[in-house]
Amino acid sequence: MQVIQSIKELEKFRSSFRNHDQLGLVPTMGALHKGHLTLVEKARQQTNQVMVSIFVNPLQFNDSKDFEKYPKQVEQDLALLEKAGCDIVFIPSAKELYVEQPLLSFQFGYLEHLMEGQHRPGHFNGVAIVVSKLLHLIKPHQAFFGEKDLQQLRIIQCLVRDLSMLVEIVPCATVREPDGLAMSSRNMRLNPDQRQRALLLHRSLIKAKEMLGKTSHSEIEQLIQKEFSSEKLEYFRIVQKDSLETCSDPLQDKEVALCIAAFIDEIRLIDNIIVSS
Known about the structure:
This protein is of the alpha/beta class. It has helices at 7-15, 34-46, 64-69, 74-84, 94-97, 116-119, 123-138, 150-162, 192-197, 199-211, 217-227; strands at residues 2-4, 23-28, 49-54, 88-90, 142-146, 168-172, 232-240, 255-264, 267-276. Strands 1-4-3-2-5-6 form a six-stranded parallel beta sheet, sandwiched between helices.
């Protein structure tokens, strides 16, 4: 497995790439878990060269404390990737990717004003800048993103579509622990008590799913709010799967997403499930 850290090394690798090869990219912020490795596995199935990028992007954190506490374990990540059959790992520094503070900014219309966009101003601009850089520099044929970050996935799909980027964005299903907790790098920060309390997110989504079509959306939202009487619920939304716009009530959409974000003490977690009618 080759590890590269500079854009110059990346350019050298890309210039020597054979025309018939297919390059798959799995962008990550490190602190890898089984969910990331599932993306690597899918990339191996669909391409014959797999690159993973590891970069904790400061531009997408609207909370500096969250950035500082984000788990970092590069040596462990590299060992996991080598075992998973990754071919190349790109680990740039912040100075390598951001020689100067970017002046460019992205706007994503209504997507910026709901759910993650509403509660994390500037987050998606940071995501779009770093993903644009990675796709431009690496030039993968396919890039693999998890559906746990559903709104981020939609932002990236919008970015690629509107800028006519020559890359296929491949969505990958959320990977869960046996008890239903969605795998996340932030789970590493949970102590045993917090880990048990975090199960409330998935349990609430399942409860909401069972009420769909039987109870109005406003009543479902109120019931989920009550579920979080001892935790801080940031949002719960019932939205159209593809557009993420509000669903009709009574439900008429073929596929909807139930999306949730909550704090377990100071640790922010998100989750969603997709429901087909």
